[in-house]
Design goal:
globular
């Protein structure tokens, strides 16, 4: 029995294999360097916020100026508590308003609108995500605030049993509820874009099977599309929440709160502020300890957004495992 030796590759093939090996190594090195750079940058930001923020947290109110250091509060934590509450309150209410509209718009574009309508509508929605936040702030502080003034006044009188409309009414449309509406408009295109792409990833065979079994279009969406897209929708919602938590200029330009207070009321002049808008509004006039306190607030916001994204990843991974079963 004779054996044949494996063919010897030509010199050109060896050169090609060597080039591919070097290309793979270079690409792997670049990708690894990019990932490590992101981690190093995040760690550097965290260390900077921690080192610069600690003096503000530990500042003695008796030896500092509370107005310039803690925004008129007696201590750092007396300032941080209402700001964290206001940040979460603004973002959550904005999500409650935006998410139903975003999912409905994404479903309309994907399954109901004819192509000649769906394409321009999707294009306009995507353009909304590129509008600078200061433009939203100008629009919200002038046009939207003036338009909502009679409505907010009516709600503060006839719906005062709802905590966010409890009042007393500030007499202007530039209040917290207007800022929340601006935030909801700002996060809407992000959720729409991600939801639309996720809906398109639903296997056509699954949709056709549901229709073949006699399901209506809505029943097909409810039983086949939404379960498949649940984790993607959650991802889009969390990305929208991240933008709402960190938004600065729009909230600062629309809502003119005097002092941050721990309250659900969003129609008065003392309604809650967000961390980002408070930092932007007080940085220029803050003392040295005050700037340290503002940096410490930035650290809290950094940690808050990190927790939100961590929870989002956990929810998405849990949904993927459940759907895989």
């Amino acid at each position: 029995m004779s054996t044949q030796s494996p063919p010897v590759p030509a010199g050109g093939d060896l050169f090609q294999q060597g080039s591919q090996g070097r290309g793979d190594a270079i690409f792997k090195g670049l990708a690894s360097a990019a990932g490590i750079t992101i981690l190093v940058a995040l760690a550097a930001v965290f260390v900077f916020l921690l080192v610069k923020g600690i003096p503000g947290v530990l500042a003695d109110p008796a030896l500092s100026q509370p107005v310039k250091t803690f925004g008129g509060k007696s201590s750092f934590w007396a300032l941080a508590g209402p700001l964290v509450f206001g940040t979460v309150l603004f973002a959550v209410i904005a999500l409650i308003i935006a998410v139903p509209f975003a999912i409905a718009i994404a479903l309309f574009i994907t399954y109901y609108a004819p192509p000649r309508i769906a394409t321009p509508v999707a294009y306009v929605i995507d353009l909304l995500a590129a509008v600078p936040s200061i433009i939203y702030g100008l629009w919200g502080g002038t046009v939207l605030a003036a338009s909502l003034k009679p409505t907010i006044e009516w709600l503060s009188v006839h719906a005062s049993w709802i905590p966010i409309f409890k009042g007393p009414y500030a007499g202007t449309g530039q209040v917290g509820i207007t800022a929340v509406l601006v935030l909801s408009v700002m996060i809407l295109p992000i959720i729409v874009a991600i939801s639309r792409e996720v809906f398109k990833q639903t296997p056509p065979l699954v949709q056709e099977a549901a229709i073949g079994l006699g399901a209506t279009r809505w029943e097909m969406i409810r039983m086949a599309v939404l379960p498949h897209a649940k984790s993607g929708i959650v991802a889009g919602v969390m990305l929208g929440l991240g933008r709402a938590l960190g938004e600065t200029m729009a909230v600062l330009m629309v809502s003119h709160a005097l002092n941050p207070n721990l309250t659900f009321n969003l129609t008065g002049s003392h309604e809650g502020q967000t961390i980002a808008s408070f930092i932007a509004g007080h940085w220029a006039e803050a003392s040295n300890d005050g700037k340290s306190a503002l940096i410490a607030l930035g650290l809290i916001l950094f940690a808050l957004t990190f927790v939100v994204n961590f929870v989002a990843r956990w929810v998405i991974a849990r949904g993927d495992r459940k759907f895989a079963r």
